[in-house]
Fold this protein.
Amino acid sequence: MRKLLSIAVVLLLTLTVFIPAIAEDAAEVAAIKERGKLLVGVKADVPSFGYQELGGEFEGLEIDLAHKLAEAILGDPNAVEFTAVTAKTRGPLLDTGELDAIIATFTIKADRILQYEFSKPYYVDAIGLLVTKASGIASFADLDGKTIGVAQSATTRDALQAAADAAGYSMEFAEFPTYPDLKAALDSGRIDCFSVDKAILMGYLDDTTVLLPDSFAAQPYGVAVKKGNLGLLAVVDELIMASRANGSMDELVVKWNLPTVDWSVVDQYGIDLWAEAEELAANPTPTPAS
Amino acid sequence: MTGPFSQQNWQTWFSDWTFFADGFLRTIYISLLALMFTFLIGIIAGILLCGNNRIILSLLKGYMSFFQNTPLVIQIFIYYNVLPKIGVLLSVEAIGVLGLALYTGAYAADIVHSAIKAVPTGQMEAASSQGFSYLQTMFFVILPQAIKIGLPPMTNQAVNLIKNSSVLAVIAGGELMYRADVWSGSNLIYGPTFVMTGVLYLVICLPISLLARWLEKRSVRNV
């Protein structure tokens, strides 16, 4: 009897210790708590989103969001370590487990959802066109037969190609690894137009260049975590939805001088993308070579 | 299986193989043209280096020092973005061929020069005693022997040139590495992409490396 009782006590104690832990934290979130630090990949060359100052400090809307996430998980907004990533390095860094999350102007796309877990959008941008004043190009129509420079690992090319096809224009595309490479190619006349997301282009606007009025394909940005890391994803989603509901996300958008976001449109976009991803997973079709 | 190397990712890669095949052929095309010019630069500069014209010598030394001691990426970037500012707009292919040839040529010149020097001086003396002119001696006596000595290191440079052609990815070169970057970037499937891109470079470079090793063994045996 005594033995039974002691077993019962031990069992009960074990349960009281473990059940709340299971209910509260997924294993991935527990790992972050144990480490005491959130590891986030951010952009270093996109003013207003993720930009690294000469002193090494990062700043921008995505940096602020990362601080909020650290506060939500660890209770301390400064318990976050930033790593500069590019469009090319952000995926592998998640897969190897070197980073917990990527908040780096990562556009949510159906085929990308098959590779990583994406949060609900925290911002939505549109593709813009930057040209030199000297070129005299005034609208998308003037780009017929011209060469467009886009960033590697960006969604720009597909969106512009679709718009060009619809209008019956022909365009050449050249893809470059970094935004400064693109600006250099525009200045040297290698490309006629530098096209990435509008908020990114704003950072490269100067005396010699002009942003065309045209906008293409809304680009919803999401936080990406490793495929299958649903525990962390749930925390991120909760934070983003709460920040959107209480207006603090809008405050950040205003703080960084970004065009305001209509969240109802964003959600429509989001739902479509995840449905599209599910369909894609069910009937895998080869992606067309771009 | 999930993750970067999932079966689905491999299938997607193979369904787009023609995109990589185009890049592969372009890498071979640019490399072959660049190799021809590299040999040309190497032989001409190597022979001139054996002469004793002070001006030519210092010009050649300047060329070799500059191209051997600056990164190829920067040289390529300058051809692409700086030359247009002074009115010289070269195509990406031309930059690839010219850039790789000038860079590798700086090493090839050294190889040809030392290969000529490695031919015993008695050969030169014997040829001139038979009434050969300087150029005749070079082409009929010295160079045929120098080629044997210089071929193994030159073959290594050929391998380097092919691998270095991947630098053209930074100026949207359209070759294999560029295609790998672009394709993996657009759908985030980088596992199979970079493994297979590596394999494709290996397919070109490994046979040449093995040839170099064989040539080296043969030349050691013949000495």
Q: What stands out?
A: Chain A is about 45% helix and 20% strand. The longest helix of chain A spans residues 2-24. Chain A has two domains: 2-122+222-282, 126-218.
